[in-house]
Amino acid sequence: MNIVQHIVKSGITNAKSYQDKRGILISNYISLILSVAILMIYLVRFIYFSDLSYGVSGINLVIGLLVFSSPILLNRLGFDYLGRFLICLMPILYLWFMFISQMHNLPIVYPTIYSAIRIFLLTFSTIPFLVFSYRSKYSLIAGILPGLISVLFFEQIFSAVNLSYYTQGLPLEDYPLMQMRTIIAYFILNAGSYTFHLIIVKNDMYTQKLLEELEEQSKQLELKNKTLYELNNTLDQKVKRRTAEIEKKNIELINKNVKLSEYAFINSHKLRSPLASILGLVNLFETHILSEHERLKIIEKIKKSSEDLDRVVKEINAILDETK
Fold first, then answer.
1. What is the pTM of this model?
2. What secondary structure, in 3-state letters, does 280-317 show?
3. pLDDT of 266-308, one tens digit each?
4. Could you list the residue ranges that cross the membrane (predicted)?
5. What is the DSSP string of 203-248?
6. Cα atoms found within 13 Å of the Cα of residue 257, Cβ hemisphere only
7. What is the pLDDT of residues 26-80, one digit of tens each?
């Protein structure tokens, strides 16, 4: 199965558009199917009928296999338009070659042979709509022409090789209508194939448009997500930086509060000592009768305690200024 998949995907990587890839894939499938079909026909005829007469020979088998497998090789080599054109042309040419060569060797040509050729021609006439897009109109027209010419000039081709139905001594009652029926069937079949082909291509174009819109929306969404990510990242960095600053300030405030508490505790003792001295000396002034010498001595002590108190107050103010 892997071998089959490898064969039918030959040349797909060389195609640019989705329609071309599908056309190459279908042409490879048709080539493979026709190659297997002709091989099976020869094997069945040889095994069950033990007959390879009337132009059915190994050479024709080899020619058929080469003819039907050549599009796969051309697709693989990058000549996909030529490969797809050959899958439209070669089955019809091989059909004419096989039937004409066999009919020349048959002792009796039966009417059903002409009907069989028409059936095969109608079948092969749908191949161009499978392997070409209507946007490649020249390629599509080139693929249609072999089948169209074969159907329109069916009797003239046989007349050119001396195999005209009218010269074979076959019943003529209904034959003139057969050509008209074949042409009508051809146009009905090809009109349906073309309509189906248009529907598929239109759906492809609509799907491609949706894919392009989805891709554009995906790009826009990706851009917005990237922008949002950058904004979130920037905001996160700002929050982290601000949080770090707040934590730092908080630690500084805590340290300052601790220091202030320590200084307040220490300085309260420093303030209390000179203040207590001043209060004691003032009380001594009020409650005792002192000599002039004692009064001067107490005033001197009050002055010294006031200076100590002023010094402590200045130290406290300096410390408070440092903690701001």
1. 0.64
2. HHHHHHHHCCCCHHHHHHHHHHHHHHHHHHHHHHHHHH
3. 666 666 666 666 666 666 666 666 666 666 777 777 777 777 7
4. 26-48, 54-74, 81-100, 112-132, 139-163, 183-201
5. HHHHHHHHHHHHHHHHHHHHHHHHHHHHHHHHHHHHHHHHHHHHHH
6. 6
7. 888 999 999 888 888 888 777 766 655 544 567 778 888 888 889 889 888 888 8
